[in-house]
Amino acid sequence: ACLDEIRERDEALGAFLSIDEAEALAAARETDRKRAAGEPLGSLAGVPIAIKDNINITGRKTTCASKILEAFVSPYDASVIAKLREADAILIGKTNMDEFAMGSSTEFSGLQKTRNPVDPERVPGGSSGGSTAAVGADLVPLALGSSTGGSIRQPAAFCGVTGLKPTYGRVSRFGLVAYGSSLDQIGPIARDVDGVARLFQVIAGHCERDSTSARVATADVLADLETPPAGLKVGLPVEFSSGDVQPEIKAAMAKLVARLEEAGAEIVEVSLPHTEYAIPAYYLLATAEASSNLARFDGVRYTHRTADAANLRDMYVRSRSEGFGIEVKRRILLGTYCLSSGYYEGYYLNAQRVRTKIIEDYRAAFAKVDVLLAPTTPTTAFPFGDRTDDPMSMYLSDIFTVTANLAGIPAMSLPYGADGDGLPIGLQLMGNHFQEAHLLRTARLVE
Ligand code: GLN
Predict the structure, then answer these.
(1) Domain for residue 435, yes or no?
(2) Rounded CA gap, 171 and 213, in Å?
(3) What whole-number distance in Å separates Cα of residue 47 and Cα of residue 103?
(4) N or C: which end of the chain has fewer CB within 10 A?
(5) What's the rounded Cα separation, in Å, for the pair 286 and 118?
(6) Nearest 5°: CA angle at 394, between 388 and 398?
């Protein structure tokens, strides 16, 4: 049924870069066989799942929506994919994204356009826009995205779906193409909190192949999902409500606050004073790490190599110039610049100091409250072309999401009503490190 829906409706939507029909059907038949034979079934048996195209699956393309990797076929499974196979999930296809996950609208995909499932003239958000559009359009019930600065929550908000960025180190990054390694996390996208919790339960856990994977026991997030947290204290960061937030998003916030109070929660104002430095710090650190991570795409290994080059150096230059898109080039240049001698102390080191200040802000806030509530985005989904010529305005789409990545804390976006044009509004809940179970219970209480 999912394959039929995708065939019928994805040409207009553009969520998928590739579909794996034969393998998906084989996996579905295998589930049927196991069920008939009375063999034990995994927790996601028979459930089709879409995978962002920066996560490796054996024998399938991993393009990162980049021309430089257009023909790259992965020789191995990411750890999350191995876990999904164990859970008997059906890997149905790979989804579009901003090239190498750099962007907030999926418009920087080097391969294809993805539309917002609610309004085809608007962006789905990004960078996991293909995954959130696929779930938002009901083509699949579950999807995986990745977040470096907001790429799960922001497109989830724009597409009216639920998404979670787990605690840094909670989900293995082995097999995820690296963008900003100290920020990247894979996370679940679904129609509701229950779906997100079920998928999180499968992909979370320590992994020997990821040196930053945390050795923390994974709590059973499903066990108490329906139990409302007792004595809940919710913090409202003042810095997230000041400034330009669309009035309908402010109204949705007020509604959710009232709902929480009704459920017995205590609402407290808190301050995260270094929030104003988050965007500059994030874009220095993320680009610095990206410039180093993307050095491996050199025309020698992987796919794209220029047709004619005068010498080795020329081959590197031409292959990269031809293969990378404009936003990726901008970031490599910015990252290389801020890591270069003479600038490193002023830019990179200062950004690291700001990051520490932001971590301390959150530590102080979580000494007072259990969860923090904020909008996911300052506006609802914007029209195509609105921000592509002005990088700063695009970067500001992430203003409410990047701090959770800098601090490494878990954060999720919940759909909460719509604006006057019917465009979905997303609100954000943030929790302390490794408190996903608590975060999901709180989200379940108010969804
Ligand atoms: N929009 C942010 C960026 O371009 C976040 C992307 C992401 O989380 N992958 O860096």
Answers:
(1) no
(2) 7
(3) 29
(4) N
(5) 31
(6) 155
Q: How far apart are CA 65 and CA 42, in angstroms?
A: 31
Q: Is 92 helix (H, G, I), strand (E, B) or coil?
A: strand
Reported as a single tens digit per residue, the pLDDT across 39-62 is: 999 999 999 999 999 999 999 999
| Ligand 1 close to Cβ of residue 102 (< 6 A) | yes
Mean pLDDT of 367-383: 97
The finding on whether 187 has its CB within 6 A of some atom of ligand 1 is no
**What are 150's two structure tokens?**
């907001």
- Atom of ligand 1 minimally distant from the CA of 394: 1
Helix (H) or strand (E) holding 3: helix 2-13
Convert 45-76 to b/e letters by CB count within 10 Å (16 or more is b): bbbbbbbbbbbbbeebbbbbbbbbbbebebee
* Mean per-residue pLDDT, 328-346: 94
116, part of any domain: yes
Domain containing 138: what range? 2-203
CA distances from 339 to 101, 286, 297, 345 (A): 21, 12, 19, 8
Number of domains in the chain: 1
Question: Using the 8-state DSSP alphabet, how is residue 295 labeled?
Answer: G
Q: Is 54 within 8 Å of 100 (Cβ atoms)?
A: yes
Quote the ligand 1 centre to 218 CA distance (angstroms).
27
Report, as residue numbers or ranges, the catalytic residues.
Answer: 52, 127, 151
- 153 within some domain: yes
Contact 93 CB / ligand 1 (< 6 Å):
no
